Structures are given as C-alpha cells and as structure tokens.
C-alpha cells in the first residue's frame, strides 16, 4: 500500500507494521486477526514455506493449510500486493521487498534471513516495523539488524502466577483446632469452582485440606482419605486434590501440572482404570501424547501403527505396569490384555483430529508440548459424557517454538479457570524417589 494511501486510511495515527514469521502462523493460523488497526505483512518467503509444509500430516501441515485457505479467501476481497482491509481494521499485504544492499554476514540461502531482510527493507522504507517470530534466534538476528523483534504474545500467560488450584491459607492454632474439631470454619472469601484450600497453622506443622461450603461462607474440612484407587492412595494433600478431581464425574476437564515424579500420569491412569473397569462410568480409557522426541530424533520406525506407537507410549506402559503390579484384576495381567479387551486405547494424536469421542476417559500426557491451537483441537473432540485429563510439566518443553508461558497447557489452565466443569491442581512434591526429586530441583 503506498504511503499516501496508508496516511489517508489511518489519518494522523502512526501505525505499526507487523511482519509475521512462518512459525507464528504455524503456532496459531488465526494470528493474522490479532493485530487490530495496524498493518500486517506476510513476506513472500513465508508463503513458500507454508507451501512446503502443507503436505505434512502433522499439526504443522494442518496449520499451514489453514493459513493458506485464510489468505486465499482474503484475496477475493482485494489485492494482497496493494493491501486488503480486514474486519479488525488492519491492512494485510504480502511483500517480496528486500534491501538494496544486504549486510555482508547475512546469507540469502536461508529462508529465515530472507524473512528478516524483508522486515529490514520495510523499516528502511520508513515503516515502524515489528518483526514477530516464535524463533528466539530469529528475533536475536532481527534485533542485531536494528529491528524491533517480539514474540507472539496473544496466547501467552505468566507461568509465575499460574492458577494453582489449591489456595494456601494460614490460620492460628486455635482456628485450625476448631476446623479439625467441628469440620468447618468461617471464610468469607469464596473459592473458585473446584478450587481447594490447604489450611495451615501459622506455627507450622498441622494442615487440613478443605473445600468451600456452597450454602454458607464456610470452609469444610475433607475427611481422611480411605481406600485405594487401582491399588494407589494419595501421598500428599495435592495428590489428594488431584484424585478428588479425577474421580468427580461433574468435572469434565482436569489439568495436572507438576515437575517430574509428582505423580501426574500415574494418578490420571489409576483413576481412569477405576472409572472404566470398576465404576463402568466410561466405555474405555483413551491415552495419547505428542510425538516430540527428546534429543535427536531416531528417525523412521518400522512396523504397523501399534508397533510405532509403542515406542512413544512407553512411559504410559510403564505407569500401567506399575499399577497392575500392585492392583491385581481377574483376567487382566498385562497391558496387552487391557488393549485387547478394549479397556484401553492408545491413539496417535494425528488420528484424533476429526473424531468425536463420547463416553470416554481421555488422557493427554505431556500436553505442555502442544500449542494452544492443538489443545483446542483435542479438547473439542470430547463428545457427550467424555472426561478429558491433561498432564504436563511447563518447564520441560521439547517443542522449540513453545515455552512455559506460551504452551497450550498453561494457556488452557488460565482460560478455563473458574468454569464449573473444570478442575486444576499444580503438584509440587516429587514422590518418585529422592534422586528424582533432587534432579528436578537442582538440574
């Protein structure tokens, strides 16, 4: 769009020009609509990268195809070279502009550099440019060229203030004794739906887990835990909260966040087995997890789908074998038997898209490696009567374009906070072993 037209369109307002990297559109194809009343530029190289990604069967391919369809629909309303006005007041255009002289250290053999140089050329031409990328190194290179480089912030949360699901309340020894004796204590500050309170005395030592009384401004102490869930029992207060949420059929969506060894996956599977095999609440337990390798990918895996999935699902099998070793069931001795009897279904995440899953207990493990868009795709598969459980550690992310603040699990926790059908708990104490606890804390 010519400068005179831009000025006429925006009046005296100094608009910003947001140059989007490919990974922003892969992260969230609808990100184009996030930049209200400004200018959005898609470098031509980004279109080339979307074209090369569109044949992929994974989420990258789906996001690329969705972004391409959006751009194609937009072209029916105007010319992307001159600029097309969007519903949010922004102007979208595609640019193939490059600077007259390329900095000596920047190679044009790399697409990343071409995208950055397009932003650089727009800045040289007088635009107030912001280069938007999920790639940290690309942002660093852009900054080195004098560009303003930013992350895509719309779907980010502050992990330091993430909703914990359990509110800690300190009271006097007398008040705590009254709560223990009568089972309730006055409390005017209402908790969120499915939020728990850990009532602790000032001097330390005693603590009581409580829930808000819906009829009165009181906290009600939870009774002592009795019995076993698939041979397991909670080892600390937050594990108790996790089991309360996992076993509550009115809570349709549960998120368990915590470091390695806190029992997220083990508790989810134990509760799922009880609900499927004993209570018969759900028809089967469906388990999936992102196929994101830790370290260098081992490459192509031979065999049928079940054989391929067994490598990625081994952590799930380890938890199941641990549960079966302590909780003997008639006619069920192995994980293979659970799968054969259709009590358990292991599914690749790419095959869940498009399915409708009614009446199932669905576990998404390692959900911190999913984008907000992928999380939305998964949770929206839940049919009538299905319960969805997502587990993960936001501080252990293997997806190069996500971090503790921008991953789908953290985003979902904040988005669903306060909904009556949602429950969350952040598990803090590792119960796997003393070594695992130290490794999670020190390394």
Rounded mean pLDDT is 88
Number of helices: 16
Distance between the termini: 51 Å
| Shape label | globular
The CATH architecture of the largest domain comes to 3-Layer(aba) Sandwich
Give the low-confidence spans. 1-5, 294-298
CATH superfamily of the largest domain: P-loop containing nucleotide triphosphate hydrolases
Q: Bin the helical content.
A: 25-40%
Main sheet strand line-up: 3-4-2-1-5-6
Describe the largest sheet.
Answer: 6 strands, mixed
Q: Any idea what the radius of gyration is?
A: 26 Å
Number of domains: 2
Which CATH top level class of the largest domain fits? Alpha Beta
CATH topology type of the largest domain? Rossmann fold
Task: Characterize the structure shown.
By secondary structure, this protein is α/β, with parallel strands linked by helices. The protein folds into two domains: about 5-150, 5'-nuclease (Rossmann fold); about 230-440, P-loop containing nucleotide triphosphate hydrolases (Rossmann fold), CATH 3.40.50.300. The chain has helices at about 5-10, 20-25, 45-55, 60-75, 110-125, 135-145, 175-180, 235-245, 265-280, 305-310, 315-325, 335-340, 350, 370-380, 410-415, 435-440, and strands at about 15-20, 40-45, 85, 90-95, 130, 150, 165-170, 185, 195-200, 205-210, 220, 255-260, 285-290, 345, 360-365, 385-390, 420-425. The strands form three sheets. A six-stranded mixed β-sheet has the order 3-4-2-1-5-6. Strand 3 (about 85) and strand 4 (about 90-95) form a beta hairpin. It is globular and about 80 Å long. Mean pLDDT is about 90; it is low at about 1-5 and about 295-300.
